[in-house]
């Protein structure tokens, strides 16, 4: 083998080994992020919630809430720097690249005039959802704390079990085509209506980096309230 071929082979071997090392590092960091999140206490304590309980409000429709993860994580990094809390590592760690993620699915009272008028904590404080269930839904809603909190605050007002609630969120999420880049509010609405036939006539909502899509009790898309008190 001549010197040129030997050099090419050496370069290939070095590059291949570097590729394997980088892959090992990346996936080990991802696994570490998952382990950090699901191996801790992710319970949500109702008494610490600033809004509190409303177990008697009716459910007239639902609001499905999506969050633009890059903007959320940028805000968290500006707050914490490189010292992110464990609860944020899976979503906002350097190895993660989430776009639109599920914030929650909220039963809503059409007569609400403030957030506390909506159904909340209808079954009080609930135990932690088993870790093996939480793990299944992290790809669409990348926080064990968020999944637990949304189940206790909202899901338990309309669903008998956490898994059924999370499955409905995933089902709605997968009916949507979502952009993989940040858009202004108006451009986002235009993109969504163009690429999702079932959203064409609907009035959508938005607040900061969140998107609101509303459904009736039969899961048909409806106009969201034009006032934020409807959310």
Automatic annotation (TrEMBL):
<protein>
    <submittedName>
        <fullName>Ribonuclease T</fullName>
    </submittedName>
</protein>
<dbReference type="InterPro" id="IPR036430">
    <property type="entry name" value="RNase_T2-like_sf"/>
</dbReference>
<comment type="similarity">
    <text>Belongs to the RNase T2 family.</text>
</comment>
<dbReference type="Pfam" id="PF00445">
    <property type="entry name" value="Ribonuclease_T2"/>
</dbReference>
<keyword id="KW-0812">Transmembrane</keyword>
<dbReference type="InterPro" id="IPR001568">
    <property type="entry name" value="RNase_T2-like"/>
</dbReference>
<keyword id="KW-1133">Transmembrane helix</keyword>
<feature type="transmembrane region" description="Helical">
    <location>
        <begin position="7"/>
        <end position="27"/>
    </location>
</feature>
<keyword id="KW-0472">Membrane</keyword>
<dbReference type="InterPro" id="IPR018188">
    <property type="entry name" value="RNase_T2_His_AS_1"/>
</dbReference>
<dbReference type="InterPro" id="IPR033130">
    <property type="entry name" value="RNase_T2_His_AS_2"/>
</dbReference>
């Amino acid at each position: 083998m001549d010197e040129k071929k030997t050099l090419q082979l050496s370069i290939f071997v070095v590059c291949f080994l570097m590729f394997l090392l980088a892959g090992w590092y990346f996936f080990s960091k991802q696994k570490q992020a998952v382990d950090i999140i699901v191996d801790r206490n992710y319970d949500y304590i109702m008494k610490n919630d600033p809004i509190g309980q409303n177990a008697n409000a009716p459910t007239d429709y639902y609001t499905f809430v999506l969050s633009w993860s890059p903007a959320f994580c940028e805000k968290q990094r500006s707050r914490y720097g490189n010292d992110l809390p464990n609860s944020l590592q899976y979503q906002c760690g350097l190895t993660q690249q989430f776009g639109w993620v599920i914030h929650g699915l909220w039963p809503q009272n059409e007569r609400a005039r403030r957030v506390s008028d909506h159904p909340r904590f209808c079954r009080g404080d609930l135990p932690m959802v088993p870790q093996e269930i939480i793990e299944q839904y992290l790809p669409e809603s990348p926080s064990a704390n968020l999944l637990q909190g949304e189940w206790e605050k909202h899901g338990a007002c309309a669903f008998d079990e956490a898994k059924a609630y999370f499955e409905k969120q995933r089902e709605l999420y997968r009916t949507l085509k979502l952009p993989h880049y940040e858009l202004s509010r108006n451009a986002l609405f235009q993109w969504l209506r163009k690429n999702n036939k079932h959203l064409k006539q609907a009035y959508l909502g938005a607040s900061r980096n969140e998107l609101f899509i509303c459904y009736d009790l039969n899961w048909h898309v409806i106009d969201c309230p034009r006032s934020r008190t409807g959310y």
